[in-house]
């Protein structure tokens, strides 16, 4: 699969996830090796009104989505894999006003499970800056036959469901 | 909460700590929850039953993350449980500010269907600096949880 095709697939997958549209998540980059996803800073996701920092829950959604999109983008056959577990470490509170960038990688594709890792950085001057959080997530493979044909068509051709 | 024209919150809003102190004195925590934008975004509600607290995440189209089932986004389930754990700590202990999450480990047990979700927390250990909190979330019955999690928080006096 070409990198351009993987990114298109990742973007179409993300577009089907309503809550991710509410948060404004964007696929910045997607390849065989990794997916980079942006969580724009917004007042609605603030969890600490004293500092104006975003709530860990929006980071959970960012990391779960980045890892899940990395899995979906690299598996053949449009397999939808539910999350089995997530383990997150919060290194540093994100600075108020800065966007966050998640870089997710698939570390191993086994027959029933896919292992992933993700790091979240705050964006500084257009580059990934301080490490904010890290996550390890595993996903269950339930089989490509569990993907409804209309969902597959939407990802393959960009059709509306 | 202060918002400037760009929608970015200005830091150092000390009112939150006053609201927390008032809530801890009166036992009325709704004004505190109202101060947290993320709680409002996902629609978190709660009910205090003596020392126990039942958290509720009402059915909300904007929380969907799986259009096929449909099901709640796993990240929203996690965010709901993280928020429940930190609120539970503030409701049950004498802390002057928001507890900081150190880490969070979340196991998904069943799909979180597009319906109301509930959560309750248990503080297994509260030391002088760190608290360990377990969180369970369920939908139809408490005995069939959709997710279970454990969080560590750094406590600041």
The oligomeric state of the chains shown is heterodimer
- Measured distance between first and last alpha carbons of chain A: 24 Å
Give the SSE order of chain B as H and E letters: HHHEEEEHEEEE
Give the number of helices of chain B: 4
Strand proportion of chain A: 35-45%
For the record, the CATH architecture of chain A stands as Roll
- Largest beta sheet: strand ordering of chain B: 1-2-6-7-8-5
| Relative helix content of chain A | 25-40%
Give me the count of strands of chain A. 8
Briefly characterize the structure.
By secondary structure, chain A is α+β, with helices and mostly antiparallel strands.
Task: Characterize the structure shown.
The complex is a heterodimer of chains A (161) and B (157). Chain A is of the alpha+beta class and 161 residues long. Chain A has one domain (3-157): Hotdog Thioesterase (Thiol Ester Dehydrase, Chain A). Chain A has helices at residues 3-15, 18-23, 56-74, 149-157; strands spanning 26-30, 34-39, 46-48, 53-54, 83-90, 100-109, 113-124, 127-140. In chain A, the strands form 2 sheets. In chain A, strands 1-2-6-7-8-5 form a 6-stranded antiparallel β-sheet. Chain A has a two-stranded antiparallel sheet with strand order 3-4. The radius of gyration of chain A is 15 Å and the shape is globular. In chain A, 45% of the residues are buried. Chain B is of the alpha+beta class and 157 residues long. Chain B has a single domain, classed as Thiol Ester Dehydrase, Chain A (Roll). In chain B, the strands form 2 sheets. In chain B, strands 1-2-6-7-8-5 form a 6-stranded antiparallel β-sheet, covered by helices on one side. A two-stranded antiparallel ribbon of chain B has the order 3-4. The radius of gyration of chain B is 16 Å and the shape is globular. The model of chain B is unreliable at 1-12 (pLDDT under 50). Chains A and B meet through helix 2, strand 3, helix 3 and strand 5 of A and helix 1, helix 3, strand 3, helix 4 and strand 5 of B.
């Amino acid at each position: 699969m070409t990198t351009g095709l993987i990114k298109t697939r990742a973007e179409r997958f993300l577009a089907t996830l309503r809550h991710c549209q509410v948060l404004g998540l964007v696929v910045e980059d997607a390849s065989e090796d990794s997916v980079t996803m942006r969580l724009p800073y917004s007042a609605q996701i603030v969890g600490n009104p004293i500092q104006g920092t975003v709530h860990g829950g929006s980071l959970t959604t960012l990391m779960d989505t980045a890892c899940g999109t990395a899995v979906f983008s690299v598996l053949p056959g449009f397999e939808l894999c539910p999350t089995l577990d997530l383990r997150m470490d919060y290194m540093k509170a994100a600075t108020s006003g800065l966007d966050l960038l998640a870089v997710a990688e698939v570390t191993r594709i086994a027959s029933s499970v896919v292992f992933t890792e993700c790091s979240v950085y705050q964006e500084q001057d257009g580059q990934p800056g301080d490490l904010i959080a890290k996550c390890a997530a595993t996903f269950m493979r339930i089989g490509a036959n569990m993907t409804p044909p209309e969902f597959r068509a939407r990802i393959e051709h960009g059709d509306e469901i | 909460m202060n918002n400037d024209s760009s929608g970015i919150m200005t830091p150092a809003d000390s009112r939150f700590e006053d609201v927390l102190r008032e809530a801890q004195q009166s036992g009325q925590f709704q004004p505190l929850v109202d101060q947290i934008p993320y709680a409002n975004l996902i629609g978190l509600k709660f009910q205090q039953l003596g020392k126990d607290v039942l958290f509720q995440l009402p059915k909300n189209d904007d929380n969907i993350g799986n259009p096929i089932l449909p099901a709640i986004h796993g990240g929203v389930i996690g965010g709901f449980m993280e928020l429940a754990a930190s609120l539970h700590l503030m409701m049950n202990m004498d802390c002057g500010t928001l507890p900081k999450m150190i880490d969070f480990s979340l196991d998904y047990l069943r799909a979180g269907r597009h319906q109301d979700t509930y959560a309750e927390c248990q503080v297994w250990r509260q030391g002088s600096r760190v608290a360990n909190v377990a969180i369970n979330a369920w939908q139809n019955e408490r005995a069939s949880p959709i997710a279970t999690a454990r969080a560590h928080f750094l406590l600041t006096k």
